[in-house]
Amino acid sequence: MDRVAPRRAARAVAQLASIAALLLAWEAASRLGWADPQFIPPPSAVARALGEVGPEALSLTVETLGKTVAAYVLAVVAGVGLGLLIGSVRHLYDVLNPFVVALYAIPKILVLPWVILAFGLGAAPAVAYGTLQGVFPVCLLVMGAVRDLDPRLLLVARGMGASPAQCYWKVILPAVVPAVLAGMRLAMVFCLLGVLVVEMFGGIRGLGFLLTNLANAFRAPELFAATAIVSTISIAVVLALEILNRRLSHWR
User: Percentage of the chain with pLDDT > 70?
Assistant: First the structure.
């Protein structure tokens, strides 16, 4: 235990030093003229722009995150439910698995115009498209985990008198927890991506719409600052899900 803390501290120092070195190299490249500041502004300019665009970006963050959370909940619930159902019933798996894989492989950007046409403007198309982006990774991972489950575990459980509900709760669910948690991490990233894409190309209010406006106005420092906010939010959410992953893994 005594050795773990110094290792973590050394790793954190190394990570911070790497970030600092990258920012210094970026600043030097911009000031020495190796990078055009109109397109790649130095970190100092991005930091100043953060104070200008920050309040607006933070207010829009609430809207974007609200749509992302709604899409995420729908994607996880539908993905886990469909994955358990299709993976548990062999006939359904044999029939539907090729279609699920094919739908996952189709670039979702192709259906974006149809989503906007069907749901109109507002939050609905962003939530629908975000759900569409996030549901397939969860479903495929859960399906695979159920199909890879050792059938002897279910055989022993049934031999001990376990009901179908008890088999799900005591055997299948603990076995697929890692796949569910992995799907949850992927789904959050995909849902956020889907919401941002709709906001960018659908002209819907949110962080994506702000990024598009800043890009069209050639406001590079503000664009980098807004992008940094989006990236920070995404990283924070993924790290939070990673902590949840470690805690729930004990249940398995």
Answer: 94
Q: Which DSSP state fits 163? A: -
Range of 62-71, 118-127, 164-173 with top mean pLDDT: 62-71
Which pLDDT value is given to residue 135? 94
Whole-prediction pTM: 0.81
Residue 65, CA distances (Å) to 61, 84, 131, 201, 235 in order: 6, 28, 13, 18, 13
Question: DSSP letter at 106?
Answer: S
Instruction: Please state, in angstroms and rounded to a whole number, the distance separating the CA atoms of residues 154 and 184.
Output: 25
Helix, coil or strand: residue 3: coil
Q: Within its chain, how far is the Cα of 242 from the centroid?
A: 12
Per residue in 203-236, pLDDT (tens digit) is 788 888 888 888 888 888 888 888 888 888 888 8
Residues 178 and 182: their CA atoms lie apart, in Å, by 6
CB 125 within 8 A of CB 115: yes
Q: Does domain 38-251 have CATH number 1.10.150.530?
A: no
Domain ranges of the chain: 1-35, 38-251
